[in-house]
Amino acid sequence: MLTATGLAALAATTAAVPASAAAARFRPSAPPLSGPFPVGRAHLHLVDRTRRDPWLPGSYRELMISVCYPARHGGGEPARVFSPRFGDWLDGEGGIEGIPPGSVAWDDVGTPARMNATPLTALGRRPVLLATPGHFTTRDAWSCVVQDLASRGFVTVTVDHTYEVRVEFPDGRFPDPLADTMPADPYPWLRKTLRCWSDDSSTVLTAMEVLASGGDPGEGEAPPPRGLGRLIDPARIGVLGAFTGGGLGAMETAHRDERVRAVVTGDVGLSWGEERREPIVSFHETGLRQPLMAIRVPEEDPYWAAFTAACDHPVRERALPGAGVWSLADLQWLLPDIGRAIGNPGLFAEQLGTIEPRVSVRLQREWIAEFFARRLH
């Protein structure tokens, strides 16, 4: 069985880094934004009282989401990639093998966004892009793309899939994962998680509709920034996902929720493992009705060709030469910086590939923004 404790489960077996390399805490910073607008970030706590939690059936489903949006200049505290509690967890129990505890200020990884900055409502209603994380992955794992899309005029939303990864709630809860073990036969578990992700995504899209109508979908701990709802266009919805199954989650959401109008997926496969004995999804023969762009399609997937032939629109496939399995996430820029800072510049080279991180980030940002701008005009 594969046991995943946050990002630690995604780490390769590497030689330990000498403790002397951890003398000072390194504070990484995300790449600068490429769009013309400053970015605000807000957190919302959602409770879906129409469904029970699939991992804790005695409770309603609770979610934490982050919304990034075009904002006015100034205002708000700098936004960090990880919350303080999650950062502390990454420095201890959830640490990545090969990075010594105390060597990285995980709770202080900077981004260009500012918390609860005033929305730039003069732009009018903007397309909404929902980013779905994959297995055992925090909603903050693709911030370099999500925030950049907001700087280009999109409203972007990310969601944590509660009980698959550590989630910090406003009341201080930081519950242990309940679904962080993949069984020897993973297919039933994989299908259950995909259904859960899709249901979570639908909950988030409904919350965006409430915001757009002037309401507050949150639980009241802190209201959303004033005017945020006036930026949201619930008629122009896109989903994107990559890394540890997030791309398949985006496709599952598009298949099941008719509000979605366009999809971007990365590192996606329709089956699992080396044997790839059967497809995970039900739409491998019917395709998707929405326009789809796929980055880094696995050549060995036996179901991909039939799926793309069945889609309503030609699938736009993008290669990312030299990329690795961790390239479609913040790990692309974060880990090389950390490796150099702790004296191990080759850390995770196999997983990150040979592509220059700045090139990888730039191409992802450009391709995704261009696709959604065209499809959600």
TrEMBL record:
One MF annotation (Gene Ontology) recorded for this entry: 1-alkyl-2-acetylglycerophosphocholine esterase activity
InterPro entries, per database record: AB_hydrolase_fold
Signal sequence annotation: 1-21
Gene Ontology terms describing biological process: lipid catabolic process
Keyword Phosphoprotein: no
UniProt KW keywords: Hydrolase, Lipid degradation, Lipid metabolism, Signal
Domain of life where this protein originates: Bacteria
Claim: Hydrolase is one of the keywords in the record: yes
The protein, known as: Lipase
Source organism (scientific name): Actinorhabdospora filicis
